[in-house]
Hints:
Chain A has 411 residues and is α+β, with helices and mostly antiparallel strands. Chain A has 13 helices and 22 strands.
Amino acid sequence: MWVQKLVGRSLNQVKTINAAQFCRQISARIVNKTNVEVQPQKNEKSLTFPGVWLRDNCLCEDCFHGSSKSRKLDWDNFDTRIQPVEVKTDEAAKEISVKWSDNHVSRFSLNWLKNRSFEEERQKEYLQEFYRPTTRHWSGSEFQEIARHFKYDEVMTQDSVLMEWLQSLAVYGVALLRGAPLDEGVVRRLAERVGFIRRTTYGEEFVVQAKPGAQNFAYLSLPLPLHTDLPYYEYKPSVNILHCVVQTDSPGGSNMLVDGFHIADILRREHPEDFERLSRVLVDWNDIGSEDGREFHNIWRAPVICLDSEGRYSRVNHSVPQRDSHFNVPLSEVLPWYESYARFVRLAIADSHAFKTQPGDVLTFNNIRLLHGRAGYDDSEVSPRYIVGAYLDWDIIYSRLRVLKKRAERQ
Amino acid sequence: MWVQKLVGRSLNQVKTINAAQFCRQISARIVNKTNVEVQPQKNEKSLTFPGVWLRDNCLCEDCFHGSSKSRKLDWDNFDTRIQPVEVKTDEAAKEISVKWSDNHVSRFSLNWLKNRSFEEERQKEYLQEFYRPTTRHWSGSEFQEIARHFKYDEVMTQDSVLMEWLQSLAVYGVALLRGAPLDEGVVRRLAERVGFIRRTTYGEEFVVQAKPGAQNFAYLSLPLPLHTDLPYYEYKPSVNILHCVVQTDSPGGSNMLVDGFHIADILRREHPEDFERLSRVLVDWNDIGSEDGREFHNIWRAPVICLDSEGRYSRVNHSVPQRDSHFNVPLSEVLPWYESYARFVRLAIADSHAFKTQPGDVLTFNNIRLLHGRAGYDDSEVSPRYIVGAYLDWDIIYSRLRVLKKRAERQ
Lengths: 411, 411
């Protein structure tokens, strides 16, 4: 690969590269009997790697299974007191080798090491760009600026556009695809372009259309207040794909969207007591009914604002119809919680952005983060509003996004 | 239904019931202008219900959508300062009615209220028996006592046996079905008896059989050290279903199981520093490869022992091949973490219980909680070990279990 890259260069450039190579001088030494310090080249900052971690990640054939890219070291007998006893550098191969107190020898390329540096800055970059892109929160008034549009055809055929769509979805939690065909297979094809549909109690694809005597609140033409879908699942579906096949002629039927993380930001900043309550009190979310003749009784207990161990938002739950009448909290918590929740709802309504999708639009948004709703509409038999939906999971989307990023890097 | 139940009783019993009814005397009053106190009958303890909660859960046609069993109250304009102004009891209908400061009137049956009592004991019972049964942890030496066996046919045809199987799985995290046919459709039929298969990167059903040049470590005949499946998913598949179609003739191929929650209990009690580290330090779990020509790059960061906001175990992660070489923690955390992790691994190995499934056995266990492994085996071409697997999610299993419990209660 390196040879290939040289081909297109002038002799002059080649000389410069060769000269630069001479300046490089990897050095490595053992520190405190346990760590290995590597200086990739003179005057560059040294990187420290814990010996135990290096030994654990030895890439030789005995310790690492190449085709599955996974560790096969015998961990049942792994000794955490292992120590590096000798380090060598190989300038030409740009790698170091470490001899261990058990006589095993490991080799690591400089690039491999640099990519796994324990420097805080490098770790931050890896986590915020490659692991899961940092989210950017927005208010309703900023919607037009942050909401990106992509052409359905380009998403389906160009990896770079697919990557941009998924990146927008990860960062802003919403993106719109336009110009999709009007057949019912669009959401499946789109989901399979990413990975596969996340199935729920309601099946894989679902149709949102007014149904008389509906079992689910969403299947009525009434206004649908802001909510997240399926809060009653521990494993809540991550991303909503809503393909507009037919839009109503009536003035209604608009979508409403709110960034739940933005509302959480406001509460955290301006109403810390409400924030504390809404991120601590466990609410019972539920769905009782039947679909295709099979009964279900879903319950999941979680706060409205869920935080991870580092205090970051991991999920927002909100749904008027799917909040259980069972509320398993001490009596004294009830009224204060209702007051905090009512504030959350008021703030969300005030911040919501309304817009109406057109046939061929595919609205995609993060169901872990955004609240969505729908204005009521007056359906005619001539053009009954017809939306086909499906879910995708973040596990699958991020995996795809990482593969695309790695591939783009290599090009 | 009540009438029906009376039919089989003697006149004497009917008289007793009638006499008991006369003793009942519901009473209800408003307390502190906000709460409603209900005494179901004389000399019985009163139950207190917050007014705001009662109003929120009004069951009239304007506030509640019967066929979808969900709230349709206009929450966009809900006033948390609502107050009860008058309460009445209806002895015959066994219900109370509440008139509100907005003139709305709500009616609640005594049974409905009792089931939603804010008494701590009632809430505990509801949560520990109906919401998610309390887990009971076990050591390897207790395996024979706790591991229940069920007949596959009975699970497939009798709801009571299906319920017992799922309850065992919920409480102990493991159960064995016996006498299943030897066709490849068993895991699907079983999963569909509960709900539906949880799909992963590796598809719906998967086959575990030694494959030359395997992309995944599980597809080798080497020993497979203790691990949990797919720790690199945020939404980790919940329950493993492993159907033994052909078992190896060699002495190997045994399954090993360990209750990860039991190991966590030991650490919490005897090695609190290790417990603290293993439940706090985020580990990068990963899987890089391709399946059916589609590349994936899965990563999820989570501790080995995951705790919920109440300090209960929500998940255990452990997998030697699927722990990433990227380890995004400060340098100073590395060696201590390795030492704590090595202790966890040693304790798990020491506590593991080995047994060999036979053709027709279906081993089912909680992948969120148990570690499983496999002894190596020497496969012959005459009887290549052949296991078909699939996953089920707890959301779906608990839903089914609740439906079965409700149904059993009604009978």
